[in-house]
Design goal:
Helix content: 25-40%
Number of domains: 1
Strand content: 25-35%
Radius of gyration: 16 Å
Low-confidence stretches: 1-73
Strand order of the largest sheet: 1-2-3-4-8-7-6-5
Length: 201
Amino acid sequence: MKRMMAGAVLLALATAVSGCGSSSNSPSMAAAASVRAVTNATLTASSMTTSSGATKAGSTTAAATHTSAPAAGGGTCTYLSASDAATLVANPGPVTVALVDSPISKVTSCTWGSVAIGHILLVANEYKSSAPVSDIKAAMVSSITENVGGLGDVGGFMTKTSTEVSVTFFKGTNQVMLDVSATGVNADAVLAATKKIASGV
C-alpha cells in the first residue's frame, strides 16, 4: 500500500507540473488542473495514511484543512507580492489564496485574474517527511523543457510561449511553480520573479 500511495502522489504531481504544457487544453484550463491535481494528491495520500504512519485501505484520517480568501477581499500571497504580480500582468486585480494542509505537504495556491482569460497562478508545495520527495522531484525534472540555474536545487521553464510561461523549481523540500498566461508574456520577467521567490524560500 505504501507503494500505491507514493504512486498516486507521484502521478498526480507529475500531471500537475506538466499540465500547463498540454497541447490539448488551453493554458488556463491546464493551470486550473494543476491546482486540482496537487490538491488531490495530498488529499489522496492523507486519506491512506494513519496517524501511526502505516497505510491500509479505508483508513480514516482527519480531513485536510482548506481555507480560501474571498476573491473580493484580495488576500495576501506570501510568495509573490501585489507589486511583483503587476510586473507580470497589467492590472492583475486581487489575489485569491487557498491552502491545503495534509500529512504529505502543505499546498498554497495564489491566483490572480480570470482563468478563462489570463492569469497568474502560483502553486507552492512544502513537503513533509512523509512525502516521497525524491520521486516527486524526478517527476518535476522530467517536465522541465529548459533548465535554468539559480533556482534552488533544480529548476527551469516548463512552458515558454508568447501567451504562456511556466517556471518551476525545487529547493530543499519545497516545490514552486509560477504560471503566467496573457498576451505577450515576458519570459524574462517571469523568470526574474521566480528567482526572487526562490531566494526567499
